[in-house]
Amino acid sequence: MLTGGCHCGTVRYEVAATPFEPVLCHCADCRRVSGAPALAWFTVPAGDFRYVGGAPQRYASSPRASREFCGACGAQITFAETALANRQIDVTIASLDDPRAIRPEQHIFVRSRLDWMTGLDLLPDRADDVPPPPPEHRG
Ligand SMILES: [Zn+2]
Ligand SMILES: [Zn+2]
What we know:
The chain has 139 residues and is mainly beta. Helices cover 5% and strands 37% of the residues. The structure holds zinc ion (2 copies).
């Protein structure tokens, strides 16, 4: 069982299935809804994903797809193609309580990828001023 939720703790979810197709998506829609250069996703059968806390907001990010997010803190939670919404759903890896549990295996929508997104692991590390926070779980 995978668990996750938004930053403020209002929206919480559970995933019963083993995820498949973990990807890092570089499309412009993911970028604009999140304010991040890319979003990491895994896919599960729709029936194996359920909200256990809060009620997300839904936004039609294109004529073919909608996204759900926390209306209080704005965290992106799911993406679904309308035509496939009752079969499969994509969930943001970074909203998992343990986002290290799933590692992206492919880049997708690479034609939209920001050119500075390649080679980022070559950047120098700057030391953190404070220790890393514990895994977030406020639900
Ligand atoms: Zn929230
Ligand atoms: Zn995308």
